[in-house]
Task: inverse folding
């Protein structure tokens, strides 16, 4: 009976230790899951981000078109200047 009581006490202690370890692992897993699992972005945030991106692209296009027009105007002047010098 004494040996049985000792075995029960040891197994109960093992179960408590295992339960504590399991609780710690589950808590850690919950923290990792929050950091690692992708959360869907709210529609309003996606829309705002896309609108900002489109606005930036339109601005970049305007700048590039202005630069292209400037380069074309500059090339024409050079071409006319070369034509006048040849005459």
Result:
């Amino acid at each position: 009976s004494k040996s049985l009581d000792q075995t029960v006490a040891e197994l109960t202690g093992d179960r408590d230790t295992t339960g504590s370890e399991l609780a710690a692992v589950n808590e850690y897993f919950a923290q990792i899951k929050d950091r690692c699992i992708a959360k869907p972005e709210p529609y309003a945030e996606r829309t705002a981000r896309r609108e900002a991106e489109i606005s930036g692209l339109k601005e970049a296009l305007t700048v590039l078109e202005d630069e292209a027009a400037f380069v074309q105007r500059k090339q024409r002047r050079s071409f006319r200047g070369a034509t006048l010098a040849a005459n």
